[in-house]
Amino acid sequence: MPVLVASDLDRTLIYSSAALALTMPDARAPRLLCVEVHEARPLSFMTETAAQLLTDLGDAAVFVPTTTRTRKQYQRINLPGPPPAYAICANGGHLLVDGVTDADWHASVLARLADECAPLEEVCEHLLRSADPVWVRKHRVAEDLFAYLVVERELLPEDWVKELAVWAENRGWTVSLQGRKIYAVPKPLTKSAAVREVARRTGAELTLAAGDSLLDADLLLAADRGWRPGHGELADTDWTAPEITALPERGVLAGERILREFLRAARQPA
Question: Which residues 6+ apart lie within 8 Å of 212 measured at CB?
Fold first, then answer.
């Protein structure tokens, strides 16, 4: 039976220049491969070693990129290795099969959101009303499914995020702070639900996962084995669970370590 590997991308497998965490002397820094260009500028990287590991993983398992990015944001990433047959975008709102949205899956997600949580419009209105223009740089709605703010972290009041999380919790939404972005996401919109669907379709009996943020917790809990890097929301809160390994590595070297662990487990599933 195939092994399914579902991994978050940003700050798990791929890293912006600000998130690389290259703490070694320059002469010992790993060689980097650019895997995303946006507006003619290099945006995301992995080590060359990680690129080879991902290529090998594509031959050993069903690799499923699992991201909160929109489809458009995901499709500008050029990962090494064979093109994934499945990808999960918009935190589970879109299941791509050979690059094309599965319309039935998306319809089922919309139905759950309508039944189980406050509407997106209410959340967007609250964000616009309560966020201070002094530290907000952008308001965004992603795929008509969830919202996020781009902020200046050094100006962001710590209590504001906590207050937003309480307000959202009472309406069936969750809040996640990742780098310069504050996400407000409906609770029924999960990566884990989409990963379970891919596992059902592929017949996978073993699911491996990795992620760094609060939005990845459900993904890790749904997997048979999981890994989280030494940075990010989950590390900052010392989040852990059975079968989850907290790695010490931070930054781009954590991505390399995660891929080594995926490959080792996929080749020896027992």
Answer: 8, 11, 12, 228, 229, 231, 232, 233, 234, 235
